[in-house]
Amino acid sequence: MTDTEQPAEPAEAAEAAEAARLPYTVLSVERDSHVATLWLDRPEKRNAMGMPFFAELPEAMAELGRDRDVRAIVISARGPHFSVGLDLTALADVGGSRNGGDGSSAPAPSPAEVARRTHADVLRLQAAISSAAECPKPVIAAVHGYCIGGGVDLITSCDIRVCSADAIFSVRETRMAMVADIGSLARLPLVLPLGQVAELVYTGKDIDAERAEKIGLVNHVFEDAESALAGARALAAEIAANSPLAVEGAKAVLSQGYRSQVELAQRFVAAWNAGQLRSHDLTEAVTAFFERRSPDFQGR
Q1: Is the pTM value of this prediction over 0.70?
Q2: Helix/strand/coil for 28
Q3: What's the topology of domain 10-291?
Q4: Rounded CA separation 154/150 (Å)
């Protein structure tokens, strides 16, 4: 601070903090010295990921990536759960097949047009999740409660993962007649042995924090959500104490080795799902979910 600068008044600081949050509706950001905490901030919906999330996440990551005062980022969540994954209302919008895709009374698009739109939408969702991996600053996920589907996509895009003892992880898409397509299948093989990935993905089973630590999905397990957040912030502060040039350089070098592998897998699954996201089984899975019954899959 120079001689001509004056510390902000408390009211001014509060206004500045609120202004920093204004662009976001389902996220919020806190800064403490060189560590930023990016909050998933839709607790009333258990941080389900709708279209606002996919619009705001890359904006927030870009903003924090440009901030020279931020040297490490923690992603955590408000409420009892990290995220229950993709909001099913968002899934209905992928491909824009209903009423011309814009809510109008225009004729429904052709199957080829739906496939084209679906492919573009999946690539856009992938890019949003990848913004954590593409951020030049190290990103640490602090998980508690449910971390399902899209939640796993997000944390595997982070550099480091920690969790609370109550955390539950699930790559649940196969149970919803889907192929996970926005990150998990591309990045989990970089984190876990392939056999562990196959078991998680093919069964869609839930695993607890102890199992997640044992197989290497998370680095540390803490007693509760508060201590997991504190642990993640302490780790972020430890990273932030090092040369930011060296840390960012190390992340760039580490990511270079697998970036092309991730991009190839992402493009492949986007093309695959362009023709699969309107299947009978997926419709049945969503219907059964809302009707609270077991789905009757027919493989078509």
Answers
A1: yes
A2: strand
A3: 2-enoyl-CoA Hydratase; Chain A, domain 1 (3.90.226)
A4: 6
